[in-house]
Amino acid sequence: MSTYQFPGHFLWGGAIAANQTEGAYLEDGKGLTLVDLLPTGKKRWDVMLGKLDQFTPLEGEFYPSHEAIDFYHRYKEDIALFAEMGFKALRVSIAWARIFPNGDDLVPNEAGLQFYDDLFNELRKHGIEPVVTIAHFDVPVNLIEKYGSWRDRKLVGFFETYAKTILKRYKDKVKYWMTFNEINMLLHLPFVGAGLVFEDGEDQKQTKYQAAHHQLVASSLAVKACHEINPDAKIGCMLAAGMTYSYTCNPNDVMDAMEKDRESFFFIDVQSRGAYPGYAKRFFKENNIAIKMEAEDEALLKTHTVDYIGFSYYASRATSTDPEVLKNQTAGNVFGSIENPYLEKSEWGWTIDPKGFRITANQLYDRYQKPLFVVENGLGAIDEVNAEGEVSDDYRIEYLRKHIDAMGEAIEDGVEIIGYTSWGPIDIVSASTGEMKKRYGYIYVDKDNEGNGSLKRLKKKSFHWYKQAIESNGQNL
Ligand code: BGP
């Protein structure tokens, strides 16, 4: 029997992103974003790593974001299902290119603005709080082609205009905001995180950290604007979290694990504490990285820090400095990791580690002393519709039960957590693979990897389980 208690106004719900869900990729004036250029398969990875400089869509290739699950036209039906589960919150993202199709337009696209008005109205009608990510992996293509994306300081201004536009427009409808989804992803998937495509021989580290600086400044400008526009609103950062274990108690391994975690904390240290940490300055010096700043940047970062720490947690990582141990790399992870013999893995090689979730939450709270918001967590798995037309996803229930329990334990440890929006409450396109077969949902969507299917929605077994978890405020798991 658990001893923990979730807070009374805990924001239970789910999280989706525009580019993985909406489809309608050129409808009502929307411009192309980088995700619209990501096909399925191996080429997707090449582009995501910024390896290709030619990313024109090719005839015959399948681009999953183009239709996704057609949420753009079906959101009412989907929101009704979320409401039936008792959702208190839905995390969505706004597609930058629905609002500014080219990213550098002088006036916003009214049809795009109207879509999100309608979406937020629908959520409010069901008593569901929208939690909105301003940028979730979808830089407008024009900004990549014309400016080289976030490597150019001009992106800060374009982003600020976009952020101010939506912060103003939805100020009476949205109370919770987030700036950049998984901001640390910029280091691992530079095209997805920041639209970066590298020239041959380019100093990639220099470019990435300069782009990171631009995003950090842009993020603090959004925080500033948010607080000015609506002093009651809360705006957070968003980290792809997951702690790194040291493989042994050898201090070299422990140091290595600390440094790996700091690659990610670096971003949040700036967004939450308001300054570049000493270890980052040392890293820049040792790697000949020179960040170009403008006079007001440091003051801006210092003054406009985030209100809460949003993070995703799927898996933990492990590291070693022993070349023999390093040979045992796990496949399928965006973050490099060696095999952890104590943990099971998902079909995509992601470790299943609920205790790591509790440790991660404690780590983040110890470090930042700000409310945490778990804005992604879940199990990507292959689901089968059985002969009775049902999906018995007990493995998913098992994963979520253990993770929600671990979150309860973290709360009992004294960690302040304001909400939990599990990833992909309805099946959507996978970000890393572009596949439909990697499913996270409580609601099944009839669509396959090649884009075939009726798009019909079907409640899985986990639908009823999550409903009861929410109803009991996390007591009945
Ligand atoms: C995070 C992203 C999401 C997402 C999730 C699951 O990195 O913020 O956009 O999709 O991971 O990843 P995947 O879809 O690759 O399984």
UniProtKB/TrEMBL annotation:
GO molecular function: 6-phospho-beta-glucosidase activity
Active-site positions on this chain: E376 (nucleophile)
Source lineage: Bacteria, Bacillati, Bacillota, Bacilli, Bacillales
Assigned EC number: 3.2.1.86
Top-rank taxon, per record: Bacteria
UniProtKB keywords: Glycosidase, Hydrolase
GO biological process: carbohydrate catabolic process
Name under which the protein is recorded: 6-phospho-beta-glucosidase
Any GO CC annotation of this UniProt entry: cytosol
Sequence similarity: Belongs to the glycosyl hydrolase 1 family.
Pfam families attached to this UniProt entry: Glyco_hydro_1
Gene3D superfamilies: Glycosidases (3.20.20.80)
Broad EC category: hydrolase
